[in-house]
Design a protein that fits this description.
- The mean pLDDT is 83.
- The protein is extended.
- Helix content is 40%, strand content 34%.
- The chain has 170 residues and is of the alpha+beta class.
Length: 170
C-alpha cells in the first residue's frame, strides 16, 4: 500500500513538472543557434553547415544527428515509389480555431529581443535610428548600426501549462 502511494506521488510530481517546465524557442544568428529547448527533457537544434543543415536531437540520454538536405533526396525517391493503396487513407485534421491559436501565441513570453540592423543605406539608417531608439527598452533592444552587421537574437519562453490555460481557461 505504501509502495502505491509513493508511486502515485512520484507520477504526480513528474506530471506537474512536465506541465510547468519551461520550453524555449531560440533564434540567434550571432552564434548560429536555432532551436527548441525543453529544460530537463531535451532539445532540438538546427545547425547551418555549408549547403546543408544538421538537425541535432537530444531527449534525456538519447542523441541523434541528422543531415536534413541529405535525407530529403532519399525521401523524394521513396515518395515516388509509394504504394497507391496507402495514399487513399483519410487524414484527420486537427482543427484549432483562429481565436485559440492567437491565445496560445499570446501566452508566449519574450525573454530576449535584440535586433541589430544595417540597411546598407546611410540615409535610411539615419531615418530609422530615432524610431529604433524610441522603441527600445530593457526587454526590447533595436539597434541601427553603420558597420554592415545584421544580427538577430530572439528567445521566447512558454510552458505546456500556460498554453493549456490560454487555450481552455481564458
Amino acid at each position: 500500500m505504501i509502495f502505491l502511494i509513493v508511486l502515485l506521488i512520484i507520477i504526480t510530481f513528474i506530471a506537474v513538472w512536465l506541465v510547468v517546465t519551461p520550453i524555449k524557442l531560440i533564434i540567434d544568428s550571432t552564434n548560429n543557434n536555432y532551436g527548441i529547448e525543453w529544460w530537463g527533457i531535451g532539445n532540438l537544434k538546427v545547425i547551418p553547415i555549408l549547403n546543408d543543415f544538421k538537425l541535432q536531437i537530444s531527449v534525456l540520454f538519447w542523441r541523434k544527428n541528422i543531415m536534413l538536405l541529405e535525407k530529403s533526396g532519399q525521401l523524394a525517391k521513396k515518395r515516388a515509389t509509394k504504394n497507391p493503396r496507402n495514399s487513399k487513407r483519410k487524414k484527420r485534421k486537427f482543427n484549432l480555431s483562429r481565436i485559440r491559436f492567437l491565445k496560445i501565441l499570446k501566452s508566449f513570453k519574450i525573454k530576449v529581443w535584440q535586433v541589430n540592423i544595417d540597411t546598407g543605406n546611410v540615409i535610411l539608417n539615419s531615418y530609422l535610428f530615432p524610431f529604433c531608439y524610441l522603441l527600445s527598452n530593457k526587454k526590447r533592444n533595436l539597434i541601427i548600426n553603420y558597420t554592415g552587421k545584421t544580427d538577430v537574437k530572439i528567445e521566447f519562453q512558454n510552458s505546456i501549462g500556460r498554453m493549456l490555460s490560454a487555450m481552455y481557461l481564458n
